[in-house]
Amino acid sequence: MEASMAYSCSIVADSVTKRGHRATTMVITLPRSMLAEFNTHRDFSRNSASSRAIPVRKQLKALIEDTFVPTEFGTAKGGMNAGPPLTGRKLDTAIGVWGDAALTQVWFALSLTTSPDYVQREWDKWVLEQNDNFEEFVLDVVARIENPKHSIHKLKGPLWATKGLTNRLLEPFMWHTIIVTATEWQNYFNLRTDANAQLEIRIIAQMMKEAYDASTPQLLKEGEWHLPFIQEDEKEWAKANPLLAVKAVTARCARVSYLTHDKKVIDLEADFRLADSLGKNGHMSPFEHALTPISKLEWKVRQQMAKVIRKSKLKKRVKAQMIDRTEFTSNVRGFVQARRDQENQQVFMPQAA
């Protein structure tokens, strides 16, 4: 199992208002183990791939074909930072141990998906008749599972354990895709590109910063929308039908849970149905990626709020913070999220049966 380079970053929407507020949406791929580090940044709106949503067979195939292997193995020392990285034979040994650990978890995930007896029996048969390449064996079993007519689906006694648990065994070795939208990036860039940040998140943060610095945002006027995943041939339609366009991109952002956010075949009716279902069932985070500039009228009200704060007897530091927040709607500056237009967007209220 070789070290892979699946880190990736692309900007799918970049917008700026007349007041100079900039909103950027990126699609990034980083090691799954770094998700908790990424999620500590509260200024981000994000949706990401889900271990509960993606079939085990798909995760197994992805892991076999592209396993996350650390770029380097630092050595242990006191504190949070690693010591000098391993080199030479020690590095080779560490990579080998990591690879063995990944394949061991694949074995157990495959056993939960089928059964321990099945995996052992079929592996023994594979070694006898084919070869001792476990990765090839796993891909062959995955192909069996993907074929609804294969005899594996008629076996007695398979576990078929839920993907929401089985996939957890694979997470330390998985790559993870996230759609993230934000107006506030500097703190993230400062912290995560710093030498004290863990290498695995520092790599993706540097890629994101370089993409951000190289991108030129498009001017958005009042009433226009920041729309990730709107296709080039949809842009005129989106301008004429902004609310429908918001539904479409909301659905597309939500599909990252299944890693189908970048579908090549566009089905607007399916997008609309999914967006309606998300709103009805209280799944609001996908509505945070479509943004529109704060209106002139709303800015006037916000400026009045800032004026009241300035005249107050609060401490200078407190006043500065409160005045700054008048530029925000939720976690974005200068924009309003489509989420604000959804009923029950703050507290989901299930409908009575």
Task: Summarize the model shown.
The chain has 13 helices and nine strands. With 353 residues, the protein is α+β, with helices and mostly antiparallel strands. A hairpin with a 5-residue loop joins strand 1 (8-16) and strand 2 (22-31).
Strand content: 5-15%
| Major beta-sheet overview | 5 strands, mixed
**Helical run tally:** 13
Give me the side-by-side strand order of the main sheet.
3-4-2-1-5
Give the strand tally.
9
Structural class based on helices, strands and sheet pairing:
alpha+beta
Count structural domains.
Answer: 3
Instruction: Show unreliable segments.
Output: none
Helix content: 40-55%
- Write down the overall geometry: globular
N-to-C CA distance: 52 Å
